Amino acid sequence: MSMPLPPHLTREALDRNARDLAAIQPPDEVDLQDFSVDRRPIRFTADGETYDCWPVLPLDVIQKVARMARGDGLKFDAENVDEAVEKIVQVFELLMPPESAERFTARLRPGHALPLDIRRQVLPIMRWILERYGLRPTGPSGQSSLPSPDGTAGTSSTDGAQPTA
User: Is the Cβ–Cβ distance between 123 and 146 less than 8 Å?
Assistant: First the structure.
């Protein structure tokens, strides 16, 4: 013996629901988020030379670059110039394919016919590249900013600030 249907469900209603469900087709397109990234190299020029950087950095490279910049980072003073220059070379070796890294870092070494200017080229290039990867300097700012590209003096981080009472 079959069980009676509840009063709100008739055989006709059940059949209609079955037909409606059978008529539902899965959509041809589903909601799909594409997380692909641009894989073209990050490219810049200095004195007419073009250099490439990796389009995407693996996590371990990001960690190495962050460790190198931690603490005093790439601070230049009389006591740590050699160490800072070596860190800069290592950072560019991590950010660039070997061919570009070799050409670029050769311009940081003594005796190159067209050396790179550390304050007006190398450090601004490094900042620009790191920003392309979504990285930012995390240490406190120095006593003054780097000079602008035209060679004029940098500005104090408090220029234009109003004194507090």
Answer: yes
Helix (H, G, I), strand (E, B) or coil at 3: coil
Domain range for 94 is 58-132
Task: Convert the pLDDT of each residue in 125-143 to its tens digit.
Answer: 999 999 998 877 554 444 4
Residue 40 lies inside a defined structural domain of this protein: no
- 53, 59, 64, 66 alpha-carbon torsion, rounded to 10°: 90
- The answer as to whether 23 is a domain residue is no
pTM (whole model) above 0.70: no
Contact 85, 108 (CB under 8 A): yes
90 in any annotated domain: yes
Q: Residue 42: inside a domain, yes or no?
A: no
